Amino acid sequence: MKECIVLAVALTAVMLAGSARESRSGAFMPVDSLKTPADSVAYAFGASIARDLKRTGLESLNSEVLARAISDIFAGRESVIGEAEAHELIMRTLSAAREKMDARLKEAASSFMEANKTRPGIQETTSGLQYEVLREGTGPKPALSDTVTVHYKGQLPDGTVFDSSYERGEPVTFPLNRVIEGWQEGVQLMPAGSHYRLYIPYELGYGERGAGQNIPPYSPLIFEVELLSVQPAAETTEGETTTLR
């Protein structure tokens, strides 16, 4: 029931956004048509939730029919579709939209990794991890149980940087077995002093769900990694904080 209410509110707010901008002729109204604080609140509410719905893969809604439904409810008229049927329709529609979006994202991820591995200097492991050597170090390679100190930059295939120790001005130290699989495998390939670029398929990264607002579902990840030092597990000082937060 809670899920049904949330979805119903979302659809209502989307329509409020649409009806605030469109005239009966279908032309978009200028922003200065929001003449009252209530108008602005309604538009902001609708725009925000419309963006959330688009993230589910929903591409369009019939604004005229939605306007009728909103008018009926606020006027106290009986709804043409009951709550149970409405819930089923909404869930089925969102599920289909999500499946379509997931298929598109998976295809884009696969296409990127397939094209990338044909580039000069790219090597690929049996897991699907790809990497290129920017500088080969001469130190020891870490084991999975070791603690490593690295400088790194993470970005998406479109070049968007989502994390960077360089920007923060200091390297990061953490147990290698506490990070995503692509890092675990890739960093173990690196002798200390190396600088590699890792291309991590979503299966070895953040998977079908992504991570927060910065890493989309099914996203390949590109990391530039400099392995500065390796501290074997047996040498970790008791009480030392090594977990990457």
How would you describe what is shown here?
The protein starts with a helix and ends in a 14-residue tail after the last strand. The protein has 2 domains: 2-99, no CATH class; 123-235, Chitinase A, domain 3, CATH 3.10.50.40. By secondary structure, it is α+β, with helices and mostly antiparallel strands. It contains 6 helices and 7 strands. Strands 1, 2, 3, 4, 5, 6 and 7 form a 7-stranded antiparallel β-sheet that branches. The longest helix has 34 residues, at 83-116. The protein has helices spanning 2-21, 37-55, 63-74, 83-116, 165-168, 181-188, and strands at 123-124, 130-135, 147-155, 161-164, 172-175, 195-200, 221-231. Helix 1 (2-21) crosses helix 2 (37-55).
Mean pLDDT: 83
Strand and helix order: HHHHEEEEHEHEE
- Which quaternary structure do these chains form? single chain
Q: Largest sheet, described in full?
A: 7 strands, antiparallel
pLDDT below 50 for ≥5 consecutive residues: which ranges? 1-9, 11-27, 237-245
Computed structural class: alpha+beta
Q: Which geometry do the CA atoms define?
A: elongated
Strand content: 15-25%
CATH topology of the largest domain: Chitinase A, domain 3
What can be said about this structure in brief?
The protein is α+β, with helices and mostly antiparallel strands and 245 residues long. The protein has helices at residues 2-21, 37-55, 63-74, 83-116, 165-168, 181-188, and strands spanning 123-124, 130-135, 147-155, 161-164, 172-175, 195-200, 221-231.
